[in-house]
Amino acid sequence: MEKAKSKRSFVPANYSQLLIPLIAIFLLVIFNLIRDPGFFSIGIAANNNGYPVLQGNLVSILNGASELVILSMGMTLVTAASGGQDISVGALAAIAGSVFVKVLKSGAITGWSVIGGFILCCIVAMIFGAFNGTLVANFRIQPMIATLILFTCGRSVAYWINGGATPTVESPIITAIGSFIPGIPIPTPILIVIVTGIIFALIFRFTNLGLYVQTVGINQGAARLNGINSVWIKLLAFIILGACCSIAGMINVCRLSLINHETILINIEMDAILAVAIGGNSLGGGKFRMVGSVLGAYAIQMLTITLYAMKVPSTDVKAYKAIVIIILVVLGSPVVKEALSRFWNRLSRNRQPVRAGKGAE
Asked: Among 166, 267, 292, 351, who pairs with 280 as Cys (CB 3.0-4.6 Å)?
């Protein structure tokens, strides 16, 4: 018994999935504090309407990452369930944004028209999400290939919805959604992210969706034998991602007070996939941690803000981001994880106290 107890593992639990994004954020925080001690300072200033609002790089990071965080949440479910990624989220957000603007331009912009526009754009995005999910779940097409269809034609569809125009939507309600609600100093997109996160937390808390998604991603055959409909779970994951695209598209439209089908959330699908990877989630499906993807999204946005603060030209930002992201992804790879686990085991064994010899018993 004593011998068995002495061999217990000292490896950190599952080499915590949150370790890589937390290390990335920690290193970026230290680097920025050394470079500029006031980088993360938060101040209060009056906006154009005279209301006090929070300002500073930290607020810009949390605010600027809002669309990416929401898309990363949905991408995490799709990745876990299907073992692949949806590369059409930017195009689908453009479609949702165009539908949202189309409804607002049909009459006076009121609270009810904004709600109606969001509901309609959410329904449309979920239908397109169901289309992607059908190709993956029913026709068993690899997710990246299946979503390549919408990635290719989605922005053209967004272009047709508004007749090729780039319409503007100016209204105090739209401004409040994209920036600040009068009297509330926190940017509205941050509040929307919090609400979205709470909804996901409640879903995972009171339903078995998280368990079913992981089961289907790990072993579809075993899931089927346990009565789980893997086709429906995959389809549901893509539908939920469609809803996330509609929220991200609405936020971006409200930020700019217009819709530009060519530039809205361009290339954000790559950042969403990277956020999932940096968050410690397997891109091959299975077990996932939504919090890891959220932290990964904020790490990407913090890196972007840091590069801009260092006066790096916008044309070079992607190259610097790629270098840092490669390092983070390599550190989070299974090979590196296993090597670090073996190193920790050896270190733990060397630190164990020497036991008394048997003759002393």
From this structure: 292
- pLDDT tens string 9-51: 434 444 467 888 888 899 999 999 999 999 999 999 888 778 8
- Residue 342 half-sphere exposure, CB side, CA atoms within 13 Å? 5
What per-residue confidence (pLDDT) applies to 318? 84
Strand partners, 53: 45
96 pLDDT more than 50: yes
**Dihedral over Cα of 13, 283, 273, 154: its sign:** negative
Smallest CA-to-CA distance from 273 within 93, 90, 72, 89 is with: 72
Class of domain 13-350: mainly alpha
- Sorted by where each begins, the domain ranges of the chain are 13-350
For residue 54, the 8-state DSSP code is E
Cα(254)–Cα(187) distance, rounded to whole angstroms? Answer: 12
Looking at this protein, which amino acid is placed at residue 66?
A: S
CB 29 within 8 A of CB 295: no
What string of DSSP letters covers 251-296? Answer: HHHHHHTB--TTTTTTTHHHHHHHHHHHTT--TTSS---HHHHHHH
- Whole-angstrom distance, CA of residue 16 vs CA of residue 13: 6
Helix (H) / strand (E) element for 52: namely: strand 52-55
DSSP characters over 24-46: HHHHHHHHHHHH-TTTT--EEEE
Write the pLDDT tens digit of every residue in 174-191.
Answer: 999 999 999 899 999 999
